[in-house]
User: Fold this.
Amino acid sequence: MLDLRPVGYVIGLLVIILGGTMVFPLLLELYDGRGHWPVFLQSGVITILVGGLLALSCASGMKQGLDIRQTFLLTTGVWAALPVFGALPLIMGETDLRFVDAFFEAMSGLTTTGSTVLSGLDDLPRGLLFWRAILQWLGGIGIIVVAMVFLPELRVGGMQIFRSEGFDTMGKILPRAQVIARQISLIYVGITLACAIVYGGLGMGPFDALAHAMTTTATGGFANYDASFGAFSGATEYAAVVFMILAALPFVRYVQLINGNSTPLFKDAQIRGFLLTCAVLLAVVAPVLVVQSELPFEQALREGLFNTVSILSGTGYASADYMGWGNFLIMVFFFIGLIGGCAGSTACSVKIFRYQLLFASIRVQIQKIRSPNGVFFPRYEGRRVDEDVLSSVISFFMFFILTLGVVAWLLALTGLDFVTAVSGAATAVANIGPGLGDTIGPAGNFASLNDTAKWILIATMLIGRLELLAVYAILTIRFWRA
Assistant:
């Protein structure tokens, strides 16, 4: 029989940690004196109490490492449970959101999607704005650990290829996860602080600098203003591009770098592929924008670069309403959101390495057609790629496309128009943030969607952030059989 106590114990501990982080917006509200601090006090007490009771009731089950089924449940259960408590300050606070809207906002934050149902951000209490940034920041570091520790062992979507990095964990997942999380957390905090310092030096106020640094490093995209990153301009946008790219690279390479081994950072095929993709897209977007717009060359180049990297990395900031840039660039932005950054980063979507493996497999098939008697194997970074890895990658692509189509169809059934349904499905499954069109585009939000559509998008954000198969596996009857 499946023992759920180890899963409940870990989830309980993480709920306690989430409740503990509510002290930061609480202190900020006390400093501002707007009388909003009781919201975070009450939410924190409830969250810590529930998490503590759950952990205590399940503590007797933590006598050994997690097995494969418990690990699947843990990766899904954490991202399903934490948004429930993350939504409490939004329900009790000045936003006065209904549960579905608050849960949508919290899920969007913790999955670093960046879609929002809130408007009037400029006038919200700073504690609530900071809480949104904290949710994304915690979600960013959390997904790195999941991507480097759990998903490779679960053989999800080809992630097992990264077990060669030395993160062999099965049978001792929790102790090993603690070691990896400690190393990566230092890098994550360091990049966040560096980003905040740069933002501050370029003119942002201390609060804006810290909050936007947190959501930049998490590639989440929550901003403190309805205009998103359009509230800032000039050098700040270039700085954001640098840190969005840094956050979209594999964090394990940074660990190796600070330990004196810089070679993997410069030889990583993912990194080269991601940077090359950024360069190619800029070479396409910038000239078209310069020709079609009446903007000065530098502004067109800057806005093209910023919004391209923002969508490609899944951050979802918008410094301009690119819905007015013409149909060609609108379609470009739709498709680049389905590319994503590197595995083991805070970035989302399909990920560069899967496209590289897919192209390697296609190239081998073409070689076999040309030379039927030849022996060819797909290779990645000089290593032969096993069939099970390729099978996982192809399965991921199949499920990704299938999920995108089914979710778009379900959204259309709720009454959404074609553009909103398709782009909404894409932005949720790829965890991008803004969609397309007047409703959920870069100048809009998701508040006007019906409740059914919001619940569909909530489930899709969770499924997409955990690489689809990690969630789908627990929905099968065979998974629950002994």
Notes: The chain has a mean pLDDT of 88. DSSP finds 22 helices and two strands in the chain. The longest helix spans residues 173-201. The two ends are 6 Å apart (CA to CA).
